């Protein structure tokens, strides 16, 4: 499954800031993900790094002047501007931000931006006082109003020694924002996809819970894949160790009952629900208010009551319902029964005993079963790619 960056044309604009070194890493990661990267350096950037630095990584053109007699591209900036799928300016110093805000075109980068219709992402990097200055704030706001995506800046220690807001965000975050910009008008644009993730926790007392081994990785990957094809993605997440994905709303819950309420609320205006969460089937009848003491007894009997089946009960006008069946035996029979019993359109049968599948790993191997009796066996692949294949099916169901 190709990365969403595969074959896309990205103009990477780099301005004069000590954060330039992060732009080298960004250029490298974008290139590794399959993007074709055209680099435009301002004069300031060339004080820190040379065109050769970037050219050696991207194997593509690196432009520093509006008119470069050495270049193979005629009118570099115009050619780059026209073929760009997205323009990323990282790091963006205060001066370039000001020029962009006011529509100046006095160097290769500002000219490229002005000549392009591609979406623009700007990652400011400067001293905290410069960033907080009213002039910069107004310029940033002007760009934002014009639809430019402003990435960061982050809080922290800067090259000057000052601590404040002005650090360039990390390349990983810029890459996520680039994928979002590229997918904006994708096949799921205008759709809302709700994904549940993680394992619910049912409290026994204030310190103990009944939990399970779900890491949340599968659900998070599906939500990211939905986001990358233009959907508005929401994760209803039981506790996980995962960071919130960029551009995805995360609703945090603890118990199965909380997950049910959040899922039902989100599904009111959703197009599809994908339940990747491992929901506890049972919860303690009562949770002790105070911590349970060990006491004299050698045993502790806990009475459990059944939790509602969120997926079976979820309903909505035209809501496409997708489930996961984590099984350790009789995979297809059990999954098929769940597909029917819970009124699903699609179920991903997941043999948790097979190598590379199941909890806490980045890969999974599933079989997709549908209502019409279709059986699609997918090979072992990344959870993101499983998400893509599953969403291909959801897209078809939504288009029916
Ligand atoms: N599910 C749910 N609410 C529950 C239990 C499960 O919404 N209380 C969802 C899961 O998120 C998953 C699907 O139903 O998408 C199947 O979950 P699974 O745990 O495999 O099945 P159960 O219905 O719990 O059946 P069993 O535990 O007996 O296999």
What features would you describe in this structure?
The chain contains 14 helices and 22 strands. Helix 1 packs parallel to helix 3, helix 5 (94-102) packs across helix 8 and helix 10 packs across helix 14 (383-398). A hairpin with a 5-residue loop joins strand 7 (154-157) and strand 8 (163-167). The radius of gyration is 25 Å and the shape is elongated. It is α/β, with parallel strands linked by helices. The mean pLDDT is 93. The strands form 6 sheets. It has an 8-stranded mixed sheet with strand order 13-12-9-14-17-18-20-21, with helices on both faces. It has a 6-stranded parallel sheet with strand order 3-2-1-4-5-6, with helices on both faces. It has 2 domains: 9-183, Flavin prenyltransferase-like (Rossmann fold), CATH 3.40.50.1950; 192-399, CoaB-like (Rossmann fold), CATH 3.40.50.10300. It has helices at residues 20-32, 43-46, 51-58, 76-83, 94-102, 108-114, 128-132, 134-145, 171-183, 217-228, 256-267, 310-313, 331-341, 383-398; strands at residues 9-14, 36-41, 62-63, 86-92, 120-124, 149-150, 154-157, 163-167, 192-197, 202-203, 209-210, 232-237, 249-252, 272-275, 282-284, 304-306, 320-327, 346-351, 363-364, 366-370, 375-377, 381-382. 34% of the residues lie in helices and 23% in strands. Cytidine-5'-triphosphate binds next to helix 12 and strand 17. Cytidine-5'-triphosphate binds at residues 256, 275, 277, 279, 281, 307, 309-311, 323-326, 338.
